[in-house]
Amino acid sequence: MSRPTFTALLVLATGTLTACGGSQGHVGSGADGGATGDSGTDGGGSGADSSAGDSSATDSGAGDGPSWAPPSPAACSPACSGGEVCVAGACACPVYQSLCNGQCIPTVGDPGNCGGCGVTCSASEVCSAGKCAATCLPGLTACAGQCVDTNTDNANCGACNTPCGATEGCVWGTCGPATVKTSATCSNGGPIPTITVGSETVCLDQLGASTFLTWGACTCGNFATDADNVVVDAYDSTKGPYTGPSAPGGNVGVNGGVNVNNPMSVSGTLRVAGTSQLSLETRGLTVGGDLHVGPAAMVSSEGQTTVGGDAYAAGGIEASDPFTITGALHQPAGATNSMNVTYGSLVPGAVQVPPPCACGAADVVPIASLVAHAQATNDDNAIGLNPDLFGNSGQTGRLDLPCGTYYLSSIEQPSEVVIAVHGRVALYVGGDIATQIAFAVDPTAELDVFASGQLSINQPVVFGSPDHPALVRVFIAGGINVDAPLTVSGFLYAPNAAYDLNEATTVFGGLFVGDFGARDVSVHYDRALVAPGPSCAH
Question: pTM of the entire structure?
Fold first, then answer.
């Protein structure tokens, strides 16, 4: 089917529809989500690695897969109960939850029900991402068998068993003033926030499920870094905590060129569309899957390069160190390579590598338009939320939100901020996010953040929890300027941003940005981001 574009369709933000009791919706599957993209074949579409059997070696790029805005699946009949949701016509518990005694409960961090009903961890263990383990993931602290963020946990604020008072909340490890909002309509997490695209209702948690969410990292421009290592691999957070690559995938797409002056490791496929000036220049490269490089510019490598699958090169390969291709090298007839280049077989023929990342004006999510609509259509009045709560003169440290669609004019007060989410929330921000901030999301909740401005912060930033990263998606219309360590447990989508950070970036999820120039980067792509979602229709 043809893929609609944002500019061709009327987009209206809503956020009042529910579905089979409501759910986050990335229900895990034994097939690691079954996504078309980051599944060990090809990120972002129809699977161009199938071109191995095509003498022309044409790479189909983003391909013919479903739209970035798939319509909501049909609801179940009869309706699901006990917190279960309707997925592909059957009722199931949401991701990170299990059906215990007829009710879905979170089992991702419960030491008495760790990963399943009645699965008990020993006294020396913690429940980490649904598995009994000796330690917690980085950024989390072991408290009474649970892995908690002591920066945001009201019962363990700054340290284990340090609760905040009734009118306070935990703000970066210190109890401080809190604004707590509640709602009577948030049973089982509340309804899934939606937008309407044309005549279709689209669940927010499924935006890009077959396009941008399938990439470990995707850039609209160049991918360049001159310091520290770059690692992109993959795992499935519904199967346990990240302990190293444990699932196929971890694909990287680059519409421009790659210039990496330190070792780079990609566990999946690396696709580089290239430019007339720059295709691929590295100092040590490991690609677990296939390598696709175009156009006709030379591939240049210093340091050992290993490709686990096939290589598709639109030009020659110049290598001063061993450049080993396990599979076939697809290359135009007459292309010349250094003697250090070895391969299983040579397949002559034209090679085409279209831009893999959907970055055209008609393809990107219209973040600013969605925010503008939400400014007038939201649930702020229903819970008494002041949209200027976190303006640059604000002093509130913490905001606790129930399910719903909310609008804030900006988040830029001088003091630290924690936004804690206790249901399914779509949060629209009219201006910048410009203060030290942590988004804390319950394992039974989910969060979509849309900001019209920039992410501009010189203090640490935390999005979500590495124990359940598939619950968070962050959309930034402007630039990214973060001069401090950044931890993203979820997916960060900022197609206009030059992602040029001097501090460490750790991602449990994925990145889609404009230009990439960060250093010390680890992206652990979470396949749970593209697991089948539930219906959010009536």
Answer: 0.87
